[in-house]
Structures are given as structure tokens and as C-alpha cells.
Amino acid sequence: MGNSVWKDTWLITVRNIKTTIRNPFSFIPNLIISAFFLLVYEGGLSGIAQLPTFDGANYLAFILPVSIVSAAIGGAGGAGQGIVKDIENGFFSRLLLTPASRLAIVLGPIIAGMLQLFVQTILIICIGFLLGLKVETGFLGVLFVLFIAIGWGLAFAGYSAGVALRTKNAQASQSGTLIFFPLIFLSTTFVPYELIDAQWLKIAATINPTTYIFESMRTVLIDGWIFWDMMQGVIAIVVVCALTITFAAVSAKKAVARG
């Protein structure tokens, strides 16, 4: 049974990846926007790094996680879009008539969306190196950033898939992921927590899981191997993934019940 689930998940994931590759305009705009954010933030805000709180840190390394997380939010919509397309062309209904695992039907598009973000993150990091990015922890630190990125992408993809299964509407699925964009800015987006003046924004940043994703990446990029700072991002991913993938699974169960 277990082998069947993994085999079905693999086959559906590969199909979704092939579909994405055949339609490159489904992910290229998101990559361009994320790279644009990186260039603008680095060019317009790098002077902030002269403040004493930054302690001489490279602002490019500080702002890079913002570009990666924005790519995660934009790219997560791909999982929902793929499901909606399958529903509209009847493939989803035909898939339900097969012995394919129901869990695999949900996980396939989610994993495909996560892998799409993995590739986008590599490209964004490469752009960062071209701009002069320096990573305190070297190659292993880059791998950790990739790990955090795909974990956060998995969380968003789960939510996108859940919305798609509930609404069966492409516009609703895409719009559903956009509500997460404010999370980027209600956080330590441009300056460290200590430099946030507004008390309400400090409270928002404290309860916002995106803050811990940023700080986890920034730790390995700027400060080095600080275990607890790194683990806060991992914990945030585990909690949010548990919520969003459960949401997707429950949505799938209801979609199956409706036929």
C-alpha cells in the first residue's frame, strides 16, 4: 500500500512538472518579479546597512530571503492552478475513477509546486552571487537556505491546493495565495526587529511565521551556525505545513465526496 502511494505520487508529480515545463509563462513572470525585487531592494536600500544595528552586515544577504519568500508565495499558486486545470478538463474526475491513491492526487501537485520553487530559488541565489552575495556558512549554508525555501514553498502549495479543491476556480485559487503577501511586509522585511518603531508592527512581526523564515535564512547567510535561530524557521515550516496540508487533504476528501 505504501509503495503504491509513493509510486502514484511520483507519477502525478512528474505529470505536473511536465505540464509546467510546457507552459513556461506560468512561472517565468514570478521569477522575474522576485529577481526585480532583489535588484530594487539592494539598489535602493543597501545604505541601511550602514546603521550600527547591522554591524557591517551585507545588506544583499539580509534582503535575499525577502525575494525568496515572495517567489514562494507567487509560485505556490502553481499547485492550485494545476488542480483547477485538471478539474476543468475532466482529468481530475477520471483520476478519481482509477485505483490511484487519493493522497497522491493531492500530494503530486503540491510537490511539483515545491520543486518549481526549488529551481526558482537556485536561480535567485545565483543572481545574488552575481551581485556580490557572500554567505558566512559557505555551500552548506546555501543548502540550508534551499531547504527552508522548499519547506516554505510546500506550506504555501498546500494552501493553494486546498483552495483549488474547494473552489474549483482558477481565479479564486490564485487570489487565495495573494492574501499571504502582506505577511512579507508585516515582518522584519527591510530592517532588523530592533529597528521597527511601531509597536503594532513589532507585535505583528512576532506572531508572523514569515519573520522566523527570514531570520533562519539570515542567520546562515550573515551570522553563521546559530542552532536556535536556524531551528525557529524549521519549526515555523513544520507548523504551517501541518495546517495547510491538512487543509488540502480535508478539501480533497470533500471534493471526492462531491464526485
Automatic annotation (TrEMBL):
Molecular function GO terms recorded: ABC-type transporter activity
GO cellular component terms listed in the entry, alphabetical order: ATP-binding cassette (ABC) transporter complex
Membrane topology qualifier: Multi-pass membrane protein
Keyword Transmembrane: yes
Span of domain ABC transmembrane type-2: 25-255
Localization annotation: Cell membrane; Membrane
InterPro entries: ABC2_TM (IPR013525), ABC2_TM_bact-type (IPR047817), ABC_2_transport (IPR000412), Nod_factor_ABC_transporter (IPR051784)
Main location: membrane
PROSITE patterns for the chain: ABC_TM2
Transmembrane regions: 21-41, 61-84, 105-133, 139-165, 177-196, 225-250
Record keywords, A-Z: Cell membrane, Membrane, Transmembrane, Transmembrane helix, Transport
Domain of life: Bacteria
Protein family according to the UniProt entry: Belongs to the ABC-2 integral membrane protein family.
Protein name as catalogued: Transport permease protein
Organism encoding this protein: Halobacillus locisalis
